[in-house]
Design a protein that fits this description.
Layout: H1 2-20, H2 28-36, H3 39-52, E1 85-94, H4 101-107, E2 111-113, E3 121-126, E4 129-134, E5 139-145, H5 148-163, E6 172-184, H6 190-193, E7 199-201, E8 209-214, E9 217-221, E10 226-232, H7 235-251
Antiparallel strand pairs: 1-5, 1-6, 2-3, 3-4, 4-5, 6-10, 7-8, 8-9, 9-10
Length: 258
Amino acid sequence: MAESVLEWYFDKFIANDSSKTEEVKADPAEELFLSLLPDELLTLEEDTESSTGPDIHSQNSIAVVELPIPTPVLPVIQEPETIPQIQNVISTVKLGCCLDLQSIACKVWNVEYKPKAYKSLVMRIREPRSTAIIYKSGSVVCTGAKSVEDSRRAARRFARIVQKLGLPVCFLKFKIQNMVASCKTFPISLELLSCHQRCSYEPELFSGLHYKVTPGITATIFSSGKIILLGAKKEAEVYEAFDAMYPVLRCCRRLTKP
């Protein structure tokens, strides 16, 4: 009796569980379909299954990537480089003889001579572009050149033109008398700058301010920032005078509305 009960229990429960654990045989049609597929598709399928599978090493944690916080970039305001430019060089030279201005006016082109208005002769050339004021005594004032070299070359050309008329002309005592330079800077408060001891400002008479930079060199400054330097006899003196006055001008800079 006991053996029959054990056999019945074994056939009903244990035999059924062991049948469930048996491997399921694959379908022959499915094996045939997989055998016909190329190897690339089979490896792709395996890769996708492995990539989509759960990662046991991740420990269910999400990696947080810390991005750098961008710092605000402020615009850098750079002042344009301000360099005075030579606009006019005034020089003098002696020709060493007395001149007949009326005769020169009749024989030379580009000459203007009006003795009733002004007792000198005005002569102009194009290269280098300059103008000469010639006096009867033989003194010549050359203006309009942009550099010392151009002024000397222009003075020699004027002397050569007069020499071709048969006059005993010599090129003597060439000298730079004045240089005019200008530049444009930032707006300037002339009222504040007028408190400087070297400045003179009369807005009722003239809109510019006169600044005695160095002995012999004067700057005329306007509220717009335009500066005219007068009195220098060398280019180096122009730049030295501007460098000397520039710190004072920065202290008197006028702030403009945005």
